[in-house]
Design a protein that fits this description.
Strand content: 5-15%
Distance between the termini: 23 Å
Structural class: alpha+beta
Helix content: 40-55%
Strand order of the largest sheet: 4-3-5-7-6
Number of domains: 4
Largest sheet: 5 strands, mixed
Radius of gyration: 31 Å
Length: 843
């Protein structure tokens, strides 16, 4: 609806105020080109974005296929079991006992369905929607948010819509979704929405935008990817600084005074944090127990945190996506591994992004009448991009070390290249502004447009000359590249082991890099030529806009499709099958409880699908005590098998079966009980899951406890190492039994019979959330044998009940409900006030 129609009937005061505000925004933005895009309704751009996203993900939207990758499958094992258990018991699963000797599935962000409120819509839809529609929606949300934001900052509708699409379809974001990092992708899609909400609140002062900002920030926390949520807060802080600088320089884009703006932003941040409290508080409580918290640094080590740092040489991938290989086995950079070009945003995107900032006359920098008041939006985007690139360098640049030392919570994060999503957002915004400026200058048809047209024609000619040189010297380029490939530390070791394989990989990587370099030079020449023709009046702006869109599609679309194609499959490959194979059938027929030690599948979660407990598993925030135990005794590296005296630790861990594809030599302890591709060996000396001991030795530190367990003289079947005193026990004369009567995900009941006061040791992971009752009376739970739970019992028979309650869950639930009510109240009051203003204007 046109603004004039909206203001009709509101009275002269409201109409005049609206016109003045529109005039200030138009003056601040500078000239915007007319044309077919500007004459169409705004919803057509949104519809075009929706269609483009839908057809880009055609197999997922129209063929019902899914992304299937190891990271996508890892959570599925427990989820399959938990959903069935939840339906049968009526309880919400908070604990996963099937990996790592136990893991708080909710607080560790491994399993927390129904917490993220936008998912309720898809739950209501049931099986009617394509299975991956929930993921694709956030590519659309991110694209539309960038489109609206770029339009508010001065971009014309067509360039803004194309900029939004280029953000959403950046190869890095495509890879994030395809490789199973759903929470990261969702929060990346919500990031520009939060920025848009802040911009409109600062520009218009309406509570509805404040409510949207708070709701978006809360949704990010509830989706569980705290690192991207943290980057969102940093982006908002940087934009607030831009707002202050713009007002200081006389800008007219923002109407709010700094005091009210700061108060509103603070309120939104607080409400967003409280909205996410139902998940954030349990996560914060678990963090000290995980490898992401506690320890000497109160987080991960600097070396671990910066493993995926973008070395300076990897900045070449901004220009050529395969400069260091395309990923996988052809990657020869310095990161541990990568499956795709992390930094590439598109050469066409980068070309117009540079124009969006550096070309004289860019929106907000210099309008048709000279320099406009305020600070150019390009300044913000450039600052955001430079900040993101500096952080992504990680250990190769001093900034990350400063943030690691002094910024709160930063030590909990890893993978510095993850922040490149901010650079991609900045590039798409600058692209929209740059393309807008080119089209605006073309319509102005003045001296500036002719001068820029000649400059771009020269640039296009230079790119063509370089293209010819690259094609003529292709053989020399590929030879030099292949030699550099083989000299890299990552490949040189492989060259010594398998020289033919290394040389073949080098040839493949060199051919790909040569092709990408030639392709990008051709794209630069074409983009410069199109812009030059448009600026010199030889090509209509609408046709130039279409040509740029085609070049951008040729640039980034094939890369994204190449990333997605190997990971796109039918839905049955994502959800692990519930039909058991021979191995699982054999194990499930054995009475338990017991654990397995899957040597080749140590990091697999698939056995949890069937309720089989493993000492292994995979999760990015595994329990710290468990990891310390594994490292101390070499269980994860198989060093254990070089020290037969440590086999008793397998007994302590209740490991009854070893699973391996190879034969185990003669050993009276291990007996083969199942043959096949994966062989099963039974540990004949396995210990029980729950047992009683008559002696407990206090070890105040983890190192002391592990050292005592490593002592060959220590007998874990008769004594325990505890973190704190438990009171008098019966000593060596103590005998007793412990039988697990009930074993659920949130509750375990053990019946104990002891001749003297004893310590019940339950071979499940200790966590502060576990509470115990002995015959209905609350009893303290102590850490036993560094990783297990212990409860003191008197002589006689007792029922000991363990129940898990995620710390902070109840308080967080109340805070989230209160914050949701407050956000809704702000939105309703703002809408009511706007309606009252309209009514007063009419009267």
């Amino acid at each position: 609806m046109a603004k004039g129609k909206r203001d009709r009937g509101r009275g002269p005061a409201v109409a005049a105020a609206r016109a003045a505000a529109d005039g200030r925004e138009a003056e601040a933005r500078g000239p915007v080109p007319a044309g077919i895009w500007s004459r169409l309704p705004a919803w057509t751009a949104v519809a075009a974005i929706a269609l483009a996203v839908a057809f880009y993900f055609y197999p997922l939207v129209f063929a019902g296929q899914v992304f299937s990758s190891p990271d996508a499958q890892a959570p599925q094992g427990f989820a399959v079991y938990a959903e069935t258990w939840r339906a049968e018991s009526g309880e919400y699963p908070l604990w996963n006992p099937f990996i790592f000797c136990g893991l708080p599935s909710y607080a560790a962000l491994a399993y927390n369905p129904d917490v993220y409120f936008p998912d309720w819509i898809f739950k209501l839809a049931g099986g009617l929607a394509p299975p991956m529609l929930w993921l694709i929606l956030y590519y659309f949300v991110g694209a539309v948010a960038v489109y609206v934001l770029a339009g508010d900052l001065g971009a014309a509708r067509g360039p803004a819509a194309l900029g939004g699409l280029l953000f959403a379809l950046t190869p890095n974001l495509i890879a994030v979704g395809a490789h199973g990092h759903g929470s990261q992708l969702v929060n990346s899609g919500l990031l520009p929405l939060a920025l848009l909400a802040l911009h409109r609140y600062l520009a218009r002062g309406r509570g509805t935008w404040l409510a949207l900002l708070a709701a978006t920030l809360g949704a990010q926390l509830l989706r569980g990817h705290v690192q991207i949520a943290y980057y969102t807060w940093l982006t908002l802080a940087l934009y607030f600084l831009y707002y202050l600088a713009d007002r200081r320089r006389g800008g007219k884009t923002f109407r709010l005074a700094p005091g009210r703006a700061a108060a509103g932003l603070a309120l939104a941040l607080v409400l967003g944090a409280l909205l996410g409290a139902v998940l954030a508080l349990p996560v914060a409580a678990y963090t000290p127990q995980s490898i992401r918290g506690g320890g000497e640094t109160d987080g991960v080590s600097f070396e671990y945190a910066t493993g995926w740092s973008l070395a300076l040489g990897e900045l070449t991938t901004l220009i050529v996506p395969s400069a260091l290989g395309f990923g996988g086995e052809t990657y020869w950079g310095t990161m541990p591994f990568t499956d795709y070009p992390n930094a590439y945003v598109g050469i066409v995107t980068l070309f117009f992004a540079i124009l969006g900032f550096f070309v004289p006359g860019a929106p907000g920098v210099a309008g048709a009448r000279g320099r406009a008041p305020g600070l150019a939006p390009g300044i913000f985007f450039l600052a955001l991009a430079l900040f993101a690139l500096a952080v992504a360098l990680g250990k190769h640049f001093f900034l990350y070390d400063l943030l690691f030392r002094f910024l709160p919570y930063w030590k909990k994060f890893r993978v510095p290249v993850m922040i490149l999503v901010l650079a991609q957002l900045a590039a798409s915004g600058l692209f929209a502004l740059g393309l807008t400026r080119v089209l605006a200058l073309a319509r102005a048809a003045g001296l500036a447009s002719a001068r820029l047209g000649r400059t771009l024609l020269t640039a296009a000619g230079g790119a063509l000359v370089l293209l010819v040189i690259v094609l003529l010297l292709g053989g020399a380029f590929r030879d030099s590249y292949s030699a550099a490939f083989q000299r890299s530390p990552r490949i040189s070791a492989q060259l010594a082991r398998a020289p033919e394989v290394a040389r073949e990989l080098g040839a493949r990587a060199a051919a790909r890099a040569h092709w990408d370099l030639a392709k990008n030079l051709a794209l630069i020449a074409a983009a410069g030529g199109l812009a030059s023709l448009c600026l010199r009046g030889r090509l209509r702006p609408e046709l130039a806009m279409g040509g740029v869109a085609l070049l951008a599609a040729i640039d980034v679309a094939p890369i994204g499709q190449e990333i997605m194609r190997p990971l796109t499959t039918t839905r049955s490959h994502l959800v692990q099958p519930t039909a058991a194979d021979d191995l699982v059938t054999f194990l499930r027929a054995v009475e338990g409880p017991f654990r397995i030690y899957p040597i080749e599948e140590f990091r697999s979660n698939r056995f949890a699908t069937f309720g089989l407990a493993s000492v292994g598993g995979y999760h990015a925030a595994k329990p710290r005590a468990y990891q310390e135990f594994m490292d101390a005794f070499g269980l994860e590296t198989l060093e254990l098998f070089s020290h037969p005296d440590r086999y008793r630790l397998l007994d302590l861990l209740n490991v009854r079966y070893l699973l391996t594809a190879t034969e185990i030599g003669a050993n009276p302890r291990f007996v083969k009980v199942h043959d096949g591709p994966t062989k099963v060996y039974e540990n004949r000396l396995v210990g029980p899951r729950a047992f009683v001991v008559g002696a407990a030795e206090v070890a105040p530190t983890g190192a002391a406890a592990l050292g005592r367990l490593a002592d060959p003289a220590f007998d874990p079947a008769r004594q325990a190492v505890v973190a704190s005193a438990v009171g008098p026990l019966g000593g060596a004369a103590t005998t007793g039994t412990a039988e697990i009567k009930e074993f659920g995900l949130n509750r375990v009941v053990v019946r104990v019979a002891a001749s003297h006061p004893a310590l019940l040791v339950l071979g499940e992971l200790y966590d502060p959330g576990w509470q115990a009752r002995v015959d209905g009376v609350e009893a303290p739970v102590v850490r036993a044998d560094h990783i297990f739970r212990g409860v003191r019992v008197e002589s006689g028979q007792h029922d000991v009940e363990f129940r898990y309650v995620a710390p902070g869950l109840r308080l967080g639930f109340g805070l989230s409900i209160a914050a949701a009510a407050a956000i809704l109240g702000i939105a309703i009051l703002s809408l009511a006030r706007a309606r009252a203003d309209r009514s007063r204007g009419t009267a």
